[in-house]
Structure formats: structure tokens, C-alpha cells
Design brief:
There is one protein chain. By secondary structure, the protein is α/β, with parallel strands linked by helices. It has one domain (24-329): P-loop containing nucleotide triphosphate hydrolases (Rossmann fold). It contains 10 helices and 10 strands. The protein has helices spanning 62-69, 92-97, 115-120, 131-135, 139-159, 174-186, 204-221, 232-238, 256-260, 263-270; strands at 24-33, 36-46, 51-55, 77-82, 85-86, 100-102, 192-196, 224-228, 241-246, 249-254. α7 links the parallel β7 (192-196) and β8. The longest helix has 21 residues, at 139-159. It is globular, with a radius of gyration of 20 Å. It starts with 23 loop residues before the first strand and ends in a 62-residue tail after the last helix.
Length: 332
């Protein structure tokens, strides 16, 4: 077993859903911390079954936005709605129960729990068996556990993790651990998936595989995806819509080609409006959205290849390549 390479995806899993997920709508979202404004009247919508990217320099408010959407932070004002359901002010467990799953920038996996047990944690919101029935191993509890384990194995195969189910998640290479965290989120059967820098820190081969998985999540599972990512090559190829934040405000919104040619976006990344990110005087040209090895066929993610990928080249990276930390102070 090579611990650094996911197995080939199983084309028999990941059948597309027939019902479109509800629309996630963010309206005039404002977050303040002790007088500091981390988000200032931000609005956007994630259309059903789409991939929507939120980008911006460090301190722009991206992770703060994710923390509000998942219930970690409380909004000062504004609204977050999933279809007809109001999410604003709900605790994380209630938002998760309504169909919003999330991954984080920093991994938090047990060193001892296996990949299977880690992913099964995502089935908790779907479990109907009570404590007593589970403890007594009643037939209904046994049947439900078998269903959850079968679905977990399907998702693991879909991600290329099938051969790692009995391996402690904490000892796997970093790229595989990121896929395990994604698998745990998918085991929740979400309607909207929030991915906070899903390919950060991965090797080029791992990035290609992970990007293909993200595309397949939308295509095969019908899940809406909202992602924060610094790799502009990946963003421009995967995203249907891009929202750009800077100093907590929305400065651009639209399809990837429109956003990458927006002068406000260039100024934000190049630092000409304060707090220079780079000394370059020329906007970075990002590759256009194309169909390549990152986009899988309809039956699942594309297998890894050693072909060069635009996201690995210098012009496929953003002027700012570090993680989006310290956004509460909205400084960079």
C-alpha cells in the first residue's frame, strides 16, 4: 500500500441526485468584533448545484464569512437563508442538521480513530437509534448501523479512500487526511458543502485528485459547493461564480473570467489600495476556465496523472499564497 496515493475512484458510487438543493442566500452580512468590522454588508447567493468561490487577500473576511454560515460566529446584522429556512443565529449543530456541512483550514483528526470511524462521525445527524436500543443491539439498531457503514464505504470509494478504512486517520499523509475530512462532511449527506481551503498544502498530484473530487461532488452528488481557495488556477476552472472580498467588503462578483479581469480585484491583490501583498506592478494573468484532468467524467473523479497542471505553475497561483488567518481583526 502506498500511503500517499488514493486508490482509483469507484464509478459505481456517487449517483446524481434528482432534487436540486435549496439556494443559500447571504444578505447584508455584517460582523463586528469590539468595534472592528470583519464583514461589512456582504451579499451573495450560492445557486442550487453550483460551485461558488469566495476569494480575496489575507484578512479579507473569507473565513469569518464561513464561520457565520456554519454557526461558529454570530452575525451582527444581516441574514443567511437556506431555501425558506433562516440560519442566522442558529448554533452549529442546528445548521448541520439542516444540511450544511463544513471542512476547516486546520485539520482536527484523531491519531487513533480509523478512517472508517472518523467518517462515521458524519452520520451522527442521520442516526435515529436511541441510546438504549444501540446498547442492547436491538435488530433495528443493527440494521441502521449496517446502512450507515455501507453508505460510508460508498463515499470512501468515491474519494479513493477505500483501502484506508482500517488505518488510523491521524497517521496518513496530509493530502489523504484532507480527503478524510471531506469524507466526514459528505457522510452528513449535506445539501450545501462549505470547503475552507480544501487543497491548501497538498502536492501537485494530490491537488489534481482533490480538485477532481470537488467537481464530482457537484456533478455526481448534486451538492452545492461554497469554497475558499487561494489557488486561482483551481478556482478559475472549477467555480461557476466568484465573489471577491477585501477588507470585509464585496468588491467584485460574477463569472470567473469577469472577476479575473476586474481592476478592483487586481488592485486588492497587488496592494495598491493599502497593505501591499506583493511588489509586482503587473496583474497576474490567470488561466481561463477549461476542461482538463481536473474535471472528471460524469461517473466520478478523474484518476491521478503526472501531466502538468496549470494550477501548479507560477502563473496559476495568486499573488498571495498564505492561509487566510487572523481575519477577526481584518488586517494584513
Amino acid at each position: 500500500m502506498n500511503p500517499g496515493t488514493p486508490e482509483a475512484p469507484d464509478a459505481s458510487v456517487g449517483t446524481a441526485v434528482t432534487d436540486a438543493p435549496p439556494r443559500l442566500e447571504v444578505t447584508d452580512l455584517t460582523v463586528r468584533f469590539a468595534g472592528l468590522t470583519a464583514l461589512d454588508g456582504v451579499s451573495f447567493a450560492v445557486e442550487p448545484g453550483s460551485i461558488h468561490a469566495v476569494i480575496g487577500p489575507n484578512g479579507a473576511g473569507k473565513s469569518t464569512c464561513f464561520n457565520v454560515l456554519s454557526g461558529v460566529y454570530r452575525a451582527t446584522s444581516g441574514s443567511v437563508r437556506l431555501g425558506e429556512r433562516e440560519l442566522t443565529g442558529l448554533p452549529p449543530e442546528r445548521i448541520a442538521a439542516l444540511g450544511v456541512a463544513r471542512t476547516f483550514q486546520n485539520l482536527a483528526l484523531s491519531d487513533h480513530a480509523t478512517v472508517a470511524d472518523t467518517m462515521l462521525l458524519g452520520r451522527h445527524r442521520l442516526t435515529r437509534t436511541g441510546f438504549l436500543a444501540a446498547g442492547l443491539r436491538l435488530p433495528s439498531a443493527v440494521r441502521e448501523e449496517a446502512r450507515h457503514r455501507e453508505r460510508m464505504r460508498e463515499i470512501a470509494a468515491f474519494l479513493g479512500l477505500g483501502k484506508y478504512l482500517d488505518v488510523p486517520a491521524g497517521i496518513l499523509p496530509y493530502g489523504l487526511q484532507k480527503l478524510v475530512e471531506l469524507g466526514r462532511a459528505l457522510c452528513m449527506e449535506p445539501e450545501v458543502l462549505l470547503l475552507d481551503e480544501p487543497i491548501a498544502g497538498m502536492t501537485p498530484t494530490e491537488r489534481r485528485h482533490a480538485a477532481g473530487v470537488i467537481a464530482a461532488v457537484r456533478e455526481n452528488l448534486g451538492v452545492s459547493v461554497l469554497l475558499v481557495e487561494h489557488d486561482m488556477g483551481v478556482v478559475m476552472r472549477l467555480a461557476d461564480t466568484v465573489t471577491v472580498l477585501d477588507f470585509g467588503r464585496r468588491i467584485a462578483h460574477g463569472d470567473p473570467e469577469r472577476v479575473q479581469n476586474d481592476p478592483e480585484v487586481a488592485r486588492a491583490y497587488l496592494g495598491t489600495n493599502g497593505g501591499a501583498e506583493t511588489s509586482s506592478a503587473t496583474p497576474v494573468a490567470h488561466p481561463p476556465k477549461t476542461t482538463d484532468t481536473t474535471t472528471p467524467p460524469a461517473d466520478g473523479p478523474a484518476p491521478d496523472t503526472d501531466a502538468p497542471d496549470a494550477s501548479d505553475a507560477p502563473d496559476g497561483s495568486p499573488p498571495n499564497g498564505s492561509s487566510d488567518g487572523g481575519e477577526a481583526g481584518a488586517s494584513r
